[in-house]
Amino acid sequence: MKCGQGTAALVIRVGDPFCRGCFRDYFVHKFRAMLGKNRVIFPGEKVLLAVSGGPASSAMVRQVQEGLSREAAKRLRFVPGLVYVEEGAVRRQSPEQREQTLAQMETLLQATGFPYYLIHLEEALELPPSILQPGLERASTSSPSGPSYKEAVDSFIQQQRQDGDSGTSLPGHSTQDTPAGPSATPRLPATAQTQELLRSFEAAGTATAREELLEMLRTHLIVQTARNKGYAKVMMGESLTRVAIKLLTNLSLGRGAFLAVDTGFTDQRHGDVMVVRPMRDYTAKEIAFYNRFFSVPTVIVPPLFTKRREKPSIHQLVERFLLGLQEEFPSTISTVYRTGEKLSPEPAKASSESQRCLLCLCGLDTDGEEELALEPTLILEEPEAGVESKAAYIPLLCYSCRLTFKELGPLDTLPPYVRAEGQRRIRRAEMEQDQENQEASKS
Q1: Sign of the torsion formed by the C-alpha atoms of 17, 19, 20 and 24
Q2: What does the alpha-carbon distance between residue 429 and residue 395 come to, in Å, rounded to a whole number?
């Protein structure tokens, strides 16, 4: 033990025991080091923390709370807000159970003192098509046109001095950021909305497709909330264990070209809102011990529903495989994680709208592929005259999203914003093709 005085309370690795005090210092330092090393969150910037109520996101909120406290040696300088996406409808919770979960989460969020937003998964059905288009990057990010991190820190400190800030106030408590009243009794969406959402999930042919649909809707809701409320960054609470599982899962789903943005510290595919993963250096074991030792409250929700006699999703199979292997070979998950660190985000960048995937916003990875390799992604159908074709959407998607899209059921079960943006891009492609044909006929 570092202190040489306390009693060992846990062993993270062989020959590496910690007392409670040393473990707390180690945990806090890891979080600060991750943010300090990457330097993408600028002083005074608004950062939205995505909270699921699970162990990792709850530990992340506690780290931000402690980093903003007066006692912190090096205080964090950003302005936090919290968002919780309630998913009870697709997790087969009754209205009473959903109300109970919402009340528990609201109690936890209120206790932080930060502005918070409670949103329902059903609200994804009302998202604008613009969520599938990257926003303009802000000048405050580490872009060549924006200020450097050091300049931003100096400017922030100077501004604090001018405002007469003694350094004892907590950022993030502005009343203008507090959402317009989550009531004491949280209200659930209308039954019709819930039924429409369930129809989309029940139409999906596999458990894997439902997992991917849930991930997409959740991410789009969080990013849209960040845009609406003026947050430049979104913090996700994905742990090292979760990142390793996601890396192998996405590899199995055909997303090998996009692993760096799907699992890296930063994800800039949305343009104006950057997603960061500050918990990706912590194993699930470390987080579990921290939450237990320091009484970090969590809220556990049931898993996504599965149909009777349905095969498990690829996500579940990879998780069981990795965790089972980890029991016999303790370095398994860290080895997978380190492999992901070496990947480049360049293949995920799109040069234009026509080269960007409709669903995941990454660059299309289907150009130059042999016809035989793309055959599993094709939809063979003969649409009736005047009827919208599902096959028309396939050229707009990357390889992995094509496989998922095939399993999502009829077009009328897709989220409205996906159909609207897809139709716009199909019409635009047809207009460009007609223009090219006219120019070719003239010449």
Answers
A1: negative
A2: 10
Tens digit of each residue's pLDDT (9 = 90 or more) over 355-378: 899 999 999 888 765 554 566 666
Q: Which helix (H) or strand (E) holds 235?
A: strand 233-235
Does 229 have pLDDT greater than 80? Answer: yes
CA 171 to chain centre: 24
* Pair of tokens at residue 266: 């930063």
- The rounded mean pLDDT for the chain is 85
Strand partners, 13: 16
User: In Å, what is the CA distance from 312 to each residue of 198, 279, 325, 363, 404?
Assistant: 19, 27, 18, 29, 15
DSSP assignment letter at 237: -
Residue 439 banded pLDDT, cuts 50, 70, 90: confident
- Structure-token pair, residue 109: 């969020």
Measured CA distances, 323 to 302, 330, 336, 370, 391 (Å): 20, 9, 12, 36, 38
> What pLDDT, on a 0 to 100 scale, did the predictor assign at position 385?
56
Token pair recorded at residue 17: 């025991």
Distance CA 419, CA 411 (A): 8
Which pLDDT band holds residue 342 (cuts at 50, 70, 90)?
confident
394 and 377 in contact (C-beta within 8 Å)? Answer: yes
Strand order in the sheet with 266-267: 116-120, 79-86, 46-50, 233-235, 274-276, 266-267
**Length, in residues, of the chain:** 443
Q: Which residues contact 14 (CB under 8 A, 6 or more apart)?
A: none
Nearest partner of 121 among 84, 146, 149, judged by Cα: 84
Tokens of 42: 């600028």
**Distance between CA atoms of residues 443 and 441, nearest Å:** 5
The DSSP symbol for 124 reads G
**Crossing angle for the helix pair 55-68 and 284-293, to the nearest 10 degrees:** 60
Task: Calculate the alpha carbon distances from 336 to 28, 38, 382 in Å.
Answer: 24, 21, 43
Residues 6 or more apart whose Cβ sits within 8 Å of residue 412: none
CA–CA separation, 351 vs 364, rounded Å? Answer: 10
Which SS3 state, helix, strand or coil, does residue 388 take?
coil
Classify residue 405 by its DSSP letter: H
Q: Where are the beta strands (DSSP E) in 294-354?
A: none
d(CA 167, CA 161) in angstroms, rounded, equals 9
Binning pLDDT at 50, 70 and 90, where does residue 160 land?
Answer: low
How is 264-278 classified by DSSP, letter by letter? Answer: SSEE-TTSSSEEE-T
